[in-house]
Design goal:
Elements: H1 2-40, E1 44-46, H2 59-73, E2 76-84, E3 87-94, H3 97-108, E4 115-122, H4 130-173, H5 183-208, H6 212-232, H7 234-249, E5 257-260, E6 263-270, E7 274-278, E8 284-288, H8 289-294, E9 297-299, E10 305-315, H9 320-333, E11 344-350, E12 354-364, H10 370-387, H11 429-434, H12 436-441, H13 448-457
Parallel strand pairs: 3-4
Antiparallel strand pairs: 1-4, 2-3, 5-6, 5-9, 6-7, 7-8, 10-12, 11-12
């Protein structure tokens, strides 16, 4: 619940920031419009009358009449009016640009005025005073109230797109399930469609609010920001694209044993960032997906049949062919050794005192452990060779006595008595097989299941759902 509340608060804060940016842009646009009106105000306004050459001069009457009108409005300060041959010169200050143009209109409407030169300026404002700040806030509030209906309509439109983006995206991605069962592709397309719908709603928001130029500025700024963010998060994007490719190609699945970059283990989890392996020592290994995609992947579970081997030496006086047949017969009877592919007993090399045999066998790695089966076979082959009187000598050593071999007369040196050996409790074969030690030695099951169970019981090493 706390996580969902935090996400909702973050979304509402984003919406509030957007509204504040829109209000600030609207205020800036209005002020730029006012400045344009002030700059574009004509300095000289003609009265559009025919100038009569024989009309008596009325400059004093025009000046008195215009001064009385403008002074009574109480919208001007330091007002100076001068009339010369029907040409009116205005100078002073006003707090409102509308009254500056109004002064020109009043002057033009007086009979006898030929043209108006309006030099009335806005009253200089001290922006560090409290009154100026209060006036600016009041002006901003008035503009906000005027734009409030459009802003509310734009906000409702954006909220409609916001709340319908996910359901609409999920509905549009639903037919994709018939073509692929990759959850990552579905999630990526669903998010892209959601973002596109949100951008469309934001465009309509700016369009309704009358901020088309602001939208262009945001888009251009977003493009530059995206370029900077792309360089900053290059590795994250690389891992994300690699995870997408791994989800499509699927070189391995959850629970399979793989080896990547020298790390071997059971695949526990694959997210958009990396892949988590649990090695056979119980350790969690997190490998970035970009490294996995660019490395050689050895999958030990794709083909359950795995070949194992071990070496054993027999003496030169032994019958090698007979020794091979004994080892082959033993492996064919072993429960864990597969008959197809067949095991092999080959002569590998000739040692100093032994003929070295190489014994190959195949096991189902999903059911049996190769290491455990090799240990069991070596123990049983040695016992079979001993029962068949096949010699297994150790390596020959040459000992040199530079001073010769000393000779000792046993008749003059009696042989010392041998030390007493501690009694050994007899152990039968049945007891060895039924005891705890025998049970552990005869366990040939694969360790993959144990590692998978450990991975399920361990904590989740990384947030996010599996993508394969």
């Amino acid at each position: 619940m706390s996580k969902n509340m935090a996400q909702k608060q973050s979304w509402w804060s984003c919406v509030l920031w957007v509204l504040l940016l829109v209000v600030a842009a609207a205020a800036g646009a209005d002020e730029s419009g006012d400045s344009a009106e002030q700059i574009g105000e004509a300095k000289v306004d003609n009265a559009d009358r025919v100038i009569a050459l024989d009309s008596p001069s009325q400059d004093a009457d025009i000046q008195n009449r215009l001064s009385a009108i403008l002074t009574s409005s109480e919208q001007f300060s330091q007002l100076q009016i001068r009339v010369d041959n029907g040409l009116v010169f205005l100078r002073g200050y006003s707090t409102d640009t509308d009254f500056i143009g109004w002064a020109s209109d009043i002057a033009k409407n007086i009979d006898g005025v030929v043209a108006v030169v309006n030099n009335v300026e806005l009253t200089p404002v001290n922006y560090f005073s409290a009154a100026a700040i209060k006036a600016e806030f009041a002006n901003l509030w008035v503009k906000f109230v005027r734009a409030l209906p459009l802003l509310l309509a734009a906000a409702l439109t954006f909220l409609f797109f916001f709340f319908t983006s996910r359901p609409v995206a999920a509905f549009l991605v639903r037919p994709l399930r018939l073509m692929t069962d990759s959850s990552l592709i579905q999630v990526v397309l669903r998010r892209l469609l959601s973002i596109f719908i949100l951008l469309l709603g934001f465009y309509f928001f700016l369009r309704i609010a009358g901020l088309t130029q602001f939208a262009v500025a945001v888009i251009s700024g977003t493009g530059l920001l995206g370029l900077v963010v792309g360089f900053a998060f290059r590795d994250i994007a690389e891992n994300f694209i690699a995870s997408l490719l791994l989800s499509v190609q699927r070189p391995f699945r959850l629970g399979e044993v793989i080896e990547v970059s020298g790390f071997r283990g059971v695949v526990q989890k694959v997210t958009t960032r990396g892949t988590t392996l649990v090695d056979f020592d119980g350790n969690h290994i997190q490998i970035p997906n970009a490294i996995i995609y660019k490395s050689v992947i050895q999958n030990f579970s794709a083909n359950p049949n795995v070949r194992g081997s071990f070496d054993i030496g027999v003496g030169y006086d032994a019958k090698v062919r007979f020794a091979q047949e004994v080892a082959m017969a033993l492996m064919l009877k072993h429960q864990a050794v597969l008959s197809d592919p067949e095991p092999q007993v080959l002569i590998d090399s000739l040692g100093a005192s032994t003929i070295n045999l190489k014994i190959y066998f195949w096991v189902d790695a999903a059911e049996y452990s190769v290491v455990k089966v090799a240990s069991s076979l070596m123990r049983e082959v040695v016992r079979a060779f001993e029962a068949a009187n096949v010699s297994m000598p150790d390596d020959a050593r040459e000992v040199i006595f530079p001073q010769g071999v000393p000779w000792v007369d046993e008749s003059t040196h009696p042989e010392p008595a041998a030390p007493a050996q501690p009694p050994v409790a007899p152990t039968t074969a049945a007891e060895a097989h039924t005891g705890t030690t025998g049970r552990l030695l005869d366990d040939l099951a694969s360790d993959t299941d144990d590692i998978q169970q450990q991975a399920k019981r361990s904590r989740d090493p990384e947030g996010g759902a599996n993508i394969i």
